Amino acid sequence: ADITLNDIEKLEVLGHGNGGTVYKVRHKRTSAIYALKVVHNSSDPISCRQVRREMDILRRTDSPYVVKLHGFFEKPSGDVAILLEYMDLGTLDTLLKNNGTFSESQLAAVARQVLNGLSYLHANKIIHRDIKPSNLLVNRDMEVKISDFGVSKVMCRTLDACNSYVGTCAYMSPERFDPDRYGGNYDGYAADIWSLGLTLFELYVGHFPFLSEGQRPDWATLMCAICFSDPPNLPESASDEFQSFMECCLKKESNERWTAAQLLTHPFLRQ
Ligand code: ATP
Ligand code: MG
Question: Can you tell me where the transmembrane regions are (predicted)?
């Protein structure tokens, strides 16, 4: 049976995203725990649009690597809320902050799951466009799931270009800034792979790749670094397999970048 807002009680705040608040909630009758993302229309129409889009996309997805949608609520006031599968360990970003950097075998496990998710999404013509540590959720079984589809896009035609400035700029790929130079027949899917590469890089070294530790990110420095410098190199400590995997993710030319399906066969994931 469908869950209504009256059936659930708020337990605590899990976090704030842009424009919305995520609560840990309990279904009164079954005691099942969920996450409820609430956006108030009055405070922020853009976030409302994003949460609707997220709902729209999650409704079309059914994968163990994508966070599950359990309900959608809309008040007459225009406030919207979506009920999501609860991921009890939070995001990869909080795990990094609390537990420190990830080992290669942990990263291989993360990469395998996110790539399974991306390969599922891409096969269904969905581009996430905001892959980063704070949008990858983890539970106590160390399952990693893709979340936060607020700026994602469903491709209508396969070669529909989708080069709009959405998502978090830091994780944006070179062809999103400069499609003529790095794009070829840029279709958008490869941008998710670039962002995954930077995400794994950050989880390994502990800070965002194009910046040195503690450096404050600013848009111009980042854009120059992403477009004009070589892709970042992993430290010497990284294995050959990991180095090679990273190179396949961080090819500046989007046509040369490996697809999710190709990366799933990479030797790095065998460990
Ligand atoms: P942004 O994407 O703007 O950087 P964000 O990812 O933090 O922000 P949200 O996606 O709205 O924004 O989520 C806010 C926080 O709520 C997340 O960082 C996470 O800690 C928590 N959260 C979101 N969804 C869930 C979930 N399904 N289970 C557990 N915690 C969640
Ligand atoms: Mg997010």
Answer: none
Give Cα separations from 105 to 8, 13, 79, 112, 140 (angstroms): 39, 32, 42, 11, 17
Report the relative pairing of strands 126-127 and 80-85 from DSSP bridges: unpaired
**Residue whose CA lies nearest to ligand 1 atom number 30:** 90
Q: Is 84 in the pocket of ligand 1 (CB under 6 A)?
A: yes
Q: Please pick, among 7, 93, 130, 180, the residue that the annotation labels catalytic.
A: 130
Helix axes 240-249, 189-205, angle to 10 degrees: 140
192 flagged as catalytic: no
Q: For residues 161 and 152, give the distance between their C-alpha atoms in angstroms, rounded to a whole number.
A: 14
Angstrom CA distances, 79 to 4, 34, 138, 168, stand at: 15, 19, 28, 25
ipTM of the complex: 0.94
Name the residue at shortest CA distance from atom 25 of ligand 1: 35
Q: Could you read off the pLDDT of 36-58 as tens digits, one per residue?
A: 999 887 767 788 888 888 898 99
Q: What is the pLDDT of residues 207-240, one digit of tens each?
A: 988 887 777 778 888 888 888 889 999 999 999 9
Ligand 2: centre distance to CA 29 (Å):
29
Distance CA 183, CA 187 (A): 8
Coil, strand, or helix at residue 114?
helix
Ligand 1 atom with minimal separation from the 67 CA: 27
- What does residue 51 show for φ and ψ, rounded to 5 degrees? -70, -30
Q: In what helix (H) or strand (E) does residue 222 lie, and over which residues does it extend?
A: helix 219-228
